[in-house]
Amino acid sequence: MNHIASFRRIHRPSAVCLVVEGEIDAESVADFTAAIFDAVIVADDAAVLDLTKVVFFGSEAISSLITGQALANDHAVSLIIEPSHIVQRVLEVVGVTDCFELREKV
Hints:
Largest sheet: 5 strands, mixed
Shape: globular
CATH architecture: 2-Layer Sandwich
Helix content: 25-40%
Order of helices and strands: EEHEHEHE
Number of helices: 3
Number of domains: 1
Number of strands: 5
Strand content: 25-35%
Radius of gyration: 12 Å
Strand order of the largest sheet: 1-2-3-4-5
């Protein structure tokens, strides 16, 4: 079953939130990176990446998160990641969980 990636930005009371669903792979990673950038640019204090509905998270997606974190740092924005089990596992295996602010979806 093909889970094409989808990206939509919503506004939570305390932050801009990018809701991502489906697979983040070589085909969708450029759109994922652009969507992260768009969320960070419009955020005042915090940008949340809701990745709880991501079912595949390829290694190229980690680079998108690292680049997004750098942009957030440059704009004094907190980048908060709400990972799915798959995303959490990939970040753990690669050993980069300490590079990001991870939290469970509230």
